[in-house]
Task: inverse folding
């Protein structure tokens, strides 16, 4: 019988320290919103593979489509021999993305690659070098994505120099004490001090910051950014890797902002656990790179595309957009009902919900957050944190979660916080 402890010891010997591990357990199997480890312990999963499993672990429909695809073929390289699912999914995403007019889509494998390709495409279109991103934003671990990311520890330290030119503007959020006026002022300062807007290719922002703390872009800030981009010919990119694909009560979070991006990314829950990402954008921008300038060996794996097409069906058949709103409201009501001064700001759109833990003076309490995660783990609930100060708990439970299991998880949180 394998034990977690034995596997941890083996892991430690052969895996680098930089690859962290949140919980000292090894998965044996998982179903919808539950995971069992190699010792048979059961955990409720409020992390969903970091927001990848909006349709749950091993959804039967998705699993079946993957099996069918594996029996037909597993890889041809889409740039060598293409397949119908590539066109099918591109058509669906172009139709559903909140971008009007002719739209095109490109498939890659990871979220970081989707972001990288947005930058390549924006530069090819504008023939400009500069990129603006935001403090607290998170875009991936490749060199350019790391440069775009607005958080030094643990993502950037010792890994430089970073590709540039990249400049970080402030991200406005009430809970960060940054107003929209201050954020716009910081952008203006970049244009005064660092780079002329005529040399900026793109501005990239998450409609809701993921790793940064689930802070939301408001419609008014999105409108201001859209106007600045229009004025200076800058490509506006929405990074929906984490907030997209039904998490927020709409398929894409940007749908709720009232302005259209020029390019956008999606990944994570797009294929319910199979690695595929996409760039969707205005056709005239998407077509800027030369033939052969885009792609990748695994770009749009047929296995992942079969899964993604099934994910779209599951979202529709199981009304997961409505379900997302119900889950968010349920969690928020529960947390408010606890009536605890240790729970600070609660923010959510659909089921993309985070809450801050604060000390008696209302200051960020990272220790209490770590304690809640540890105690929850001991009671069989997996929780993740986020935010600049590490004091926010973010809920990424599958949207397919059973009501009883959702409640069981919430009761664990409630029990620990009230104790
Ligand atoms: N962008 C955002 C907003 C993300 O949350 C992430 C992943 N956390 C990425 C990009 C990178 O995705 P991946 O890890 O698949 O490269």
Result:
């Amino acid at each position: 019988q394998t034990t977690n402890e034995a596997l941890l010891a083996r892991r430690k010997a052969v895996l680098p320290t930089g690859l962290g591990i949140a919980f000292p357990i090894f998965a044996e199997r998982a179903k919808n919103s539950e995971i069992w480890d190699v010792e048979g312990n059961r955990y409720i999963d409020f992390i969903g593979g970091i927001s990848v499993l909006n349709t749950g672990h091993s959804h039967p429909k998705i699993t079946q489509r993957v099996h069918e695809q594996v029996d037909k073929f597993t890889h041809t390289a889409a740039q060598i021999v293409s397949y119908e699912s590539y066109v099918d999914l591109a058509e669906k995403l172009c139709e559903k993305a909140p971008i009007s007019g002719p739209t095109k889509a490109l498939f890659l494998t990871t979220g970081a690659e989707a972001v990288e390709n947005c930058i390549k495409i924006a530069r090819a279109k504008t023939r400009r070098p500069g990129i603006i991103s935001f403090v607290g934003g998170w875009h991936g671990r490749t060199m350019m994505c790391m440069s775009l990311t607005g958080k030094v520890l643990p993502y950037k330290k010792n890994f430089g120099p970073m590709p540039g030119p990249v400049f970080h503007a402030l991200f406005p959020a009430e809970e960060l004490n940054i107003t929209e006026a201050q954020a716009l002022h910081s952008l203006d300062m970049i244009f005064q001090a660092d780079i002329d807007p005529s040399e900026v290719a793109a501005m990239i922002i998450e409609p809701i910051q993921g790793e940064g703390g689930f802070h939301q872009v408001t419609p008014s800030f999105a409108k201001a950014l859209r106007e600045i981009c229009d004025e200076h010919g800058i490509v506006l990119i929405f990074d929906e890797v984490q907030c997209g694909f039904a998490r927020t009560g709409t398929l894409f979070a940007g749908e709720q902002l009232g302005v259209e991006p020029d390019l956008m990314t999606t990944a994570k829950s797009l294929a319910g656990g199979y690695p595929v990402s996409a760039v969707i954008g205005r056709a005239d921008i998407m077509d800027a790179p030369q033939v052969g300038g885009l792609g990748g060996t695994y770009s749009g794996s047929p296995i992942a595309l079969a899964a993604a097409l099934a994910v779209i069906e599951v979202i529709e058949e199981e009304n997961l957009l409505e379900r997302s709103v119900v889950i968010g409201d349920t969690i928020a009501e529960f947390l408010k009902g606890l009536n605890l001064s240790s729970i600070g700001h609660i923010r959510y759109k659909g089921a993309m919900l985070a809450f801050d833990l604060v000390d008696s003076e209302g200051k960020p309490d990272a220790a209490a957050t770590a304690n809640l995660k540890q105690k929850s783990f001991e009671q069989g609930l997996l929780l993740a944190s986020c935010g600049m100060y590490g004091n926010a708990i973010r809920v990424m439970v599958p949207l397919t979660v059973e009501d009883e299991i959702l409640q069981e998880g919430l009761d664990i949180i409630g029990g620990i916080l009230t104790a």
Summary: Residues 50, 110-112, 115, 138-140, 206, 210-211, 239, 241-242, 267 surround 4'-deoxy-4'-aminopyridoxal-5'-phosphate (CB under 6 Å). The chain has two domains: 4-55+318-418, 63-317.
